[in-house]
Protein backbone atom coordinates (compact mmCIF):
# COMPACT_ATOMS: atom_id res chain seq x y z
CA UNK A 1 0.00 0.00 0.00
CA UNK A 2 1.36 3.42 -1.09
CA UNK A 3 1.89 5.90 1.67
CA UNK A 4 0.48 9.43 1.58
CA UNK A 5 4.01 10.80 1.28
CA UNK A 6 4.77 8.62 -1.74
CA UNK A 7 1.49 9.67 -3.35
CA UNK A 8 2.24 13.35 -2.86
CA UNK A 9 5.74 12.92 -4.25
CA UNK A 10 4.45 11.11 -7.32
CA UNK A 11 1.88 13.79 -7.98
CA UNK A 12 4.55 16.51 -7.74
CA UNK A 13 6.79 14.60 -10.15
CA UNK A 14 4.02 14.33 -12.70
CA UNK A 15 3.30 18.04 -12.37
CA UNK A 16 6.95 18.81 -13.08
CA UNK A 17 6.88 16.57 -16.11
CA UNK A 18 3.70 18.17 -17.46
CA UNK A 19 5.07 21.70 -16.97
CA UNK A 20 8.36 20.78 -18.63
CA UNK A 21 6.63 19.23 -21.63
CA UNK A 22 4.34 22.26 -21.96
CA UNK A 23 7.32 24.61 -21.84
CA UNK A 24 9.06 22.65 -24.60
CA UNK A 25 5.95 22.70 -26.79
CA UNK A 26 5.44 26.43 -26.28
CA UNK A 27 9.09 27.04 -27.10
CA UNK A 28 8.81 25.03 -30.31
CA UNK A 29 5.70 26.93 -31.38
CA UNK A 30 7.06 30.39 -30.57
CA UNK A 31 10.61 29.93 -31.81
CA UNK A 32 9.91 30.73 -35.50
CA UNK A 33 7.98 33.86 -34.56
CA UNK A 34 10.72 34.97 -32.17
CA UNK A 35 13.29 34.39 -34.88
CA UNK A 36 11.32 36.52 -37.36
CA UNK A 37 11.01 39.32 -34.82
CA UNK A 38 14.72 39.16 -34.05
CA UNK A 39 15.65 39.22 -37.73
CA UNK A 40 13.23 42.04 -38.49
CA UNK A 41 14.48 44.17 -35.62
CA UNK A 42 17.83 44.65 -37.29
CA UNK A 43 16.44 45.40 -40.76
CA UNK A 44 15.60 48.82 -42.17
CA UNK A 45 12.11 49.77 -43.30
CA UNK A 46 11.82 48.90 -47.02
CA UNK A 47 12.20 51.77 -49.47
CA UNK A 48 8.91 53.08 -50.80
CA UNK A 49 7.24 55.34 -53.34
CA UNK A 50 4.64 57.59 -51.74
CA UNK A 51 1.46 58.35 -53.69
CA UNK A 52 0.11 61.77 -52.67
CA UNK A 53 -3.47 62.44 -53.87
CA UNK A 54 -4.52 65.90 -55.07
CA UNK A 55 -8.27 65.51 -55.38
CA UNK A 56 -11.13 67.96 -55.77
CA UNK A 57 -11.02 71.75 -55.54
CA UNK A 58 -7.84 73.17 -54.05
CA UNK A 59 -8.58 75.38 -51.05
CA UNK A 60 -6.43 76.50 -48.14
CA UNK A 61 -7.69 73.54 -46.10
CA UNK A 62 -6.95 70.86 -48.70
CA UNK A 63 -3.62 72.49 -49.56
CA UNK A 64 -2.59 72.31 -45.90
CA UNK A 65 -3.40 68.59 -45.80
CA UNK A 66 -1.49 67.84 -49.01
CA UNK A 67 1.42 69.95 -47.79
CA UNK A 68 1.48 67.87 -44.60
CA UNK A 69 1.69 64.68 -46.69
CA UNK A 70 4.60 66.09 -48.68
CA UNK A 71 6.33 67.20 -45.49
CA UNK A 72 6.00 63.66 -44.12
CA UNK A 73 7.47 62.31 -47.36
CA UNK A 74 10.50 64.56 -46.94
CA UNK A 75 10.99 63.57 -43.30
CA UNK A 76 10.50 59.82 -43.76
CA UNK A 77 13.84 58.28 -44.75
CA UNK A 78 12.13 55.23 -46.24
CA UNK A 79 10.26 57.33 -48.84
CA UNK A 80 12.54 57.71 -51.84
CA UNK A 81 10.12 59.10 -54.45
CA UNK A 82 6.70 60.75 -54.69
CA UNK A 83 3.88 60.40 -57.22
CA UNK A 84 1.19 63.08 -57.32
CA UNK A 85 -2.13 61.39 -58.10
CA UNK A 86 -4.07 64.34 -59.54
CA UNK A 87 -7.78 64.71 -60.22
CA UNK A 88 -8.58 68.37 -59.60
CA UNK A 89 -9.93 71.39 -61.52
CA UNK A 90 -7.68 73.75 -59.54
CA UNK A 91 -8.82 76.22 -56.91
CA UNK A 92 -7.81 79.48 -55.32
CA UNK A 93 -4.57 81.11 -56.42
CA UNK A 94 -3.02 81.28 -52.91
CA UNK A 95 -3.72 77.60 -52.23
CA UNK A 96 -2.47 76.53 -55.67
CA UNK A 97 0.72 78.55 -55.23
CA UNK A 98 1.22 77.01 -51.79
CA UNK A 99 1.02 73.52 -53.30
CA UNK A 100 3.46 74.47 -56.06
CA UNK A 101 5.96 75.63 -53.44
CA UNK A 102 5.44 72.45 -51.38
CA UNK A 103 6.12 70.23 -54.41
CA UNK A 104 9.12 72.40 -55.27
CA UNK A 105 10.52 71.93 -51.75
CA UNK A 106 10.16 68.18 -52.19
CA UNK A 107 12.16 68.09 -55.42
CA UNK A 108 14.73 70.46 -53.90
CA UNK A 109 15.20 67.92 -51.09
CA UNK A 110 16.38 65.42 -53.69
CA UNK A 111 13.17 63.37 -53.82
CA UNK A 112 12.04 62.58 -57.39
CA UNK A 113 8.45 63.68 -58.07
CA UNK A 114 6.29 62.39 -60.92
CA UNK A 115 2.68 63.47 -61.60
CA UNK A 116 -0.19 61.31 -62.83
CA UNK A 117 -3.42 62.93 -64.03
CA UNK A 118 -6.49 60.76 -63.63
CA UNK A 119 -9.51 62.77 -64.76
CA UNK A 120 -8.38 66.38 -64.73
CA UNK A 121 -5.31 68.32 -63.75
CA UNK A 122 -6.36 71.81 -64.73
CA UNK A 123 -5.45 75.36 -63.79
CA UNK A 124 -4.28 75.49 -60.16
CA UNK A 125 -3.78 71.71 -60.10
CA UNK A 126 -1.61 71.98 -63.21
CA UNK A 127 0.27 74.84 -61.54
CA UNK A 128 0.91 72.70 -58.45
CA UNK A 129 2.46 69.80 -60.39
CA UNK A 130 4.89 71.92 -62.41
CA UNK A 131 8.00 70.87 -60.45
CA UNK A 132 7.35 67.20 -61.31
CA UNK A 133 9.97 65.73 -63.64
CA UNK A 134 7.31 63.96 -65.74
CA UNK A 135 3.56 64.35 -66.14
CA UNK A 136 1.60 61.22 -67.08
CA UNK A 137 -1.89 61.57 -68.53
CA UNK A 138 -4.54 59.22 -69.82
CA UNK A 139 -5.77 59.94 -73.36
CA UNK A 140 -9.11 61.30 -72.16
CA UNK A 141 -7.89 63.26 -69.15
CA UNK A 142 -7.99 67.08 -69.14
CA UNK A 143 -4.96 69.27 -68.48
CA UNK A 144 -4.03 72.91 -69.00
CA UNK A 145 -6.20 75.98 -68.38
CA UNK A 146 -3.27 78.26 -67.57
CA UNK A 147 -5.22 81.32 -66.46
CA UNK A 148 -6.78 83.22 -63.58
CA UNK A 149 -10.31 84.32 -62.70
CA UNK A 150 -10.79 87.39 -60.53
CA UNK A 151 -13.95 88.44 -58.70
CA UNK A 152 -14.29 91.93 -57.29
CA UNK A 153 -16.68 93.30 -54.64
CA UNK A 154 -19.69 95.00 -56.16
CA UNK A 155 -19.17 98.49 -54.73
CA UNK A 156 -17.89 100.73 -52.00
CA UNK A 157 -18.84 101.04 -48.37
CA UNK A 158 -22.45 101.38 -47.31
CA UNK A 159 -23.68 104.63 -45.82
CA UNK A 160 -23.57 103.27 -42.27
CA UNK A 161 -19.89 102.31 -42.54
CA UNK A 162 -16.90 104.46 -41.69
CA UNK A 163 -13.74 103.80 -43.71
CA UNK A 164 -10.25 105.31 -43.48
CA UNK A 165 -9.61 105.69 -47.20
CA UNK A 166 -11.56 105.93 -50.48
CA UNK A 167 -10.50 102.46 -51.61
CA UNK A 168 -10.79 100.72 -48.22
CA UNK A 169 -14.30 99.48 -48.86
CA UNK A 170 -13.88 98.85 -52.58
CA UNK A 171 -10.64 96.89 -52.72
CA UNK A 172 -9.02 99.34 -55.14
CA UNK A 173 -9.98 100.74 -58.50
CA UNK A 174 -11.11 98.67 -61.47
CA UNK A 175 -7.77 99.28 -63.17
CA UNK A 176 -5.83 98.15 -60.10
CA UNK A 177 -7.94 95.01 -59.84
CA UNK A 178 -7.30 94.17 -63.50
CA UNK A 179 -3.59 94.78 -62.98
CA UNK A 180 -3.51 92.26 -60.14
CA UNK A 181 -5.31 89.64 -62.23
CA UNK A 182 -2.88 90.26 -65.09
CA UNK A 183 0.09 89.99 -62.74
CA UNK A 184 -1.14 86.61 -61.47
CA UNK A 185 -1.74 85.42 -65.04
CA UNK A 186 1.77 86.39 -66.06
CA UNK A 187 3.19 84.66 -63.00
CA UNK A 188 1.29 81.46 -63.82
CA UNK A 189 2.35 81.49 -67.48
CA UNK A 190 5.98 82.22 -66.57
CA UNK A 191 6.04 79.32 -64.11
CA UNK A 192 4.74 76.92 -66.76
CA UNK A 193 7.14 78.09 -69.47
CA UNK A 194 10.11 77.95 -67.11
CA UNK A 195 9.26 74.52 -65.69
CA UNK A 196 8.30 72.88 -68.98
CA UNK A 197 11.15 74.49 -70.92
CA UNK A 198 11.92 73.04 -74.34
CA UNK A 199 9.32 70.31 -73.90
CA UNK A 200 6.54 72.86 -74.43
CA UNK A 201 5.48 73.21 -78.07
CA UNK A 202 3.10 76.12 -77.39
CA UNK A 203 4.09 79.76 -77.57
CA UNK A 204 3.62 81.97 -74.54
CA UNK A 205 0.65 83.60 -76.26
CA UNK A 206 -0.98 80.26 -77.05
CA UNK A 207 -0.49 79.15 -73.48
CA UNK A 208 -2.12 82.38 -72.27
CA UNK A 209 -5.36 81.44 -74.05
CA UNK A 210 -5.93 79.15 -71.03
CA UNK A 211 -7.21 76.26 -73.13
CA UNK A 212 -7.64 72.78 -71.75
CA UNK A 213 -6.32 69.83 -73.70
CA UNK A 214 -7.20 66.17 -73.81
CA UNK A 215 -4.37 64.01 -72.58
CA UNK A 216 -3.49 62.71 -76.04
CA UNK A 217 -3.20 66.29 -77.36
CA UNK A 218 -1.34 67.51 -74.27
CA UNK A 219 1.29 64.82 -74.76
CA UNK A 220 1.91 66.05 -78.31
CA UNK A 221 2.10 69.77 -77.52
CA UNK A 222 4.30 69.41 -74.44
CA UNK A 223 1.71 70.27 -71.81
CA UNK A 224 2.24 66.69 -70.58
CA UNK A 225 4.97 64.12 -71.13
CA UNK A 226 3.69 60.56 -71.31
CA UNK A 227 0.51 58.60 -71.93
CA UNK A 228 -0.01 56.26 -69.01
CA UNK A 229 -1.75 55.73 -65.70
CA UNK A 230 -0.73 55.74 -62.07
CA UNK A 231 1.21 52.46 -62.33
CA UNK A 232 3.43 53.86 -65.08
CA UNK A 233 4.03 56.98 -63.01
CA UNK A 234 4.99 54.90 -59.97
CA UNK A 235 7.40 52.84 -62.04
CA UNK A 236 9.02 55.99 -63.46
CA UNK A 237 9.35 57.53 -59.99
CA UNK A 238 11.00 54.34 -58.71
CA UNK A 239 13.42 54.34 -61.64
CA UNK A 240 14.29 57.98 -60.98
CA UNK A 241 15.12 57.02 -57.39
CA UNK A 242 17.12 53.95 -58.53
CA UNK A 243 14.75 51.56 -56.75
CA UNK A 244 14.34 47.93 -57.73
CA UNK A 245 12.52 46.47 -54.73
CA UNK A 246 10.12 48.92 -53.13
CA UNK A 247 6.75 49.31 -51.46
CA UNK A 248 4.01 51.73 -52.50
CA UNK A 249 2.57 53.90 -49.74
CA UNK A 250 -0.62 55.83 -50.44
CA UNK A 251 -1.07 58.94 -48.32
CA UNK A 252 -4.52 59.97 -47.09
CA UNK A 253 -6.43 62.14 -49.61
CA UNK A 254 -7.45 65.64 -48.49
CA UNK A 255 -10.83 65.88 -46.80
CA UNK A 256 -13.29 68.04 -48.71
CA UNK A 257 -15.20 70.27 -46.27
CA UNK A 258 -18.12 70.68 -48.66
CA UNK A 259 -17.79 74.44 -48.41
CA UNK A 260 -16.00 77.10 -50.37
CA UNK A 261 -15.49 76.07 -53.99
CA UNK A 262 -18.19 73.64 -55.11
CA UNK A 263 -18.26 72.28 -58.64
CA UNK A 264 -21.51 72.15 -60.54
CA UNK A 265 -22.50 68.97 -62.34
CA UNK A 266 -25.48 67.59 -64.20
CA UNK A 267 -26.98 66.39 -60.94
CA UNK A 268 -26.14 69.20 -58.55
CA UNK A 269 -24.82 72.10 -60.58
CA UNK A 270 -26.28 74.63 -62.93
CA UNK A 271 -25.64 75.37 -66.58
CA UNK A 272 -25.81 78.52 -68.64
CA UNK A 273 -28.14 79.04 -71.60
CA UNK A 274 -25.84 77.15 -73.94
CA UNK A 275 -25.76 74.14 -71.62
CA UNK A 276 -22.08 74.56 -70.76
CA UNK A 277 -21.07 73.32 -67.33
CA UNK A 278 -20.35 76.16 -64.94
CA UNK A 279 -18.73 76.27 -61.55
CA UNK A 280 -20.97 77.13 -58.62
CA UNK A 281 -19.02 78.93 -55.94
CA UNK A 282 -20.71 79.29 -52.58
CA UNK A 283 -19.96 81.58 -49.69
CA UNK A 284 -18.17 79.88 -46.82
CA UNK A 285 -19.40 80.47 -43.27
CA UNK A 286 -15.75 80.86 -42.26
CA UNK A 287 -15.43 84.06 -44.28
CA UNK A 288 -15.97 87.45 -42.66
CA UNK A 289 -19.68 87.90 -42.12
CA UNK A 290 -21.11 90.36 -44.62
CA UNK A 291 -17.71 91.50 -45.95
CA UNK A 292 -17.05 90.91 -49.65
CA UNK A 293 -13.38 90.70 -50.63
CA UNK A 294 -11.60 90.19 -53.96
CA UNK A 295 -10.85 86.57 -54.82
CA UNK A 296 -8.51 85.09 -57.39
CA UNK A 297 -9.06 81.61 -58.77
CA UNK A 298 -6.84 79.31 -60.79
CA UNK A 299 -9.84 77.15 -61.62
CA UNK A 300 -11.15 75.38 -64.70
CA UNK A 301 -14.71 76.71 -65.03
CA UNK A 302 -16.66 79.93 -64.57
CA UNK A 303 -18.10 81.29 -61.31
CA UNK A 304 -21.88 81.28 -61.28
CA UNK A 305 -21.90 84.48 -59.27
CA UNK A 306 -19.39 86.97 -57.99
CA UNK A 307 -19.50 85.81 -54.39
CA UNK A 308 -16.45 83.60 -54.14
CA UNK A 309 -14.76 82.32 -51.02
CA UNK A 310 -12.01 80.03 -49.93
CA UNK A 311 -12.80 77.76 -46.99
CA UNK A 312 -9.95 79.00 -44.85
TrEMBL record:
Pfam families per UniProt: NfeD1b_N
Biased composition (Polar residues): 265-274
Keyword Transmembrane attached: yes
Membrane-traversing stretches: 12-31
This protein's record includes keyword Transit peptide: no
InterPro entries assigned to the protein according to its UniProt record, in alphabetical order: ClpP/crotonase-like_dom_sf, NfeD1b_N, S49_SppA_C, STAS_dom
PROSITE patterns the record matches: STAS (PS50801)
A molecular function (GO) term: serine-type peptidase activity
Alphabetized UniProt keyword annotations: Membrane, Transmembrane, Transmembrane helix
Source organism of this protein record: Halorientalis pallida
Top-level taxon of origin: Archaea
Domain STAS residue range list: 47-88
Protein name: S49 family peptidase
Positions of the UniProt region annotated as Disordered: 254-277
GO BP annotation list: proteolysis
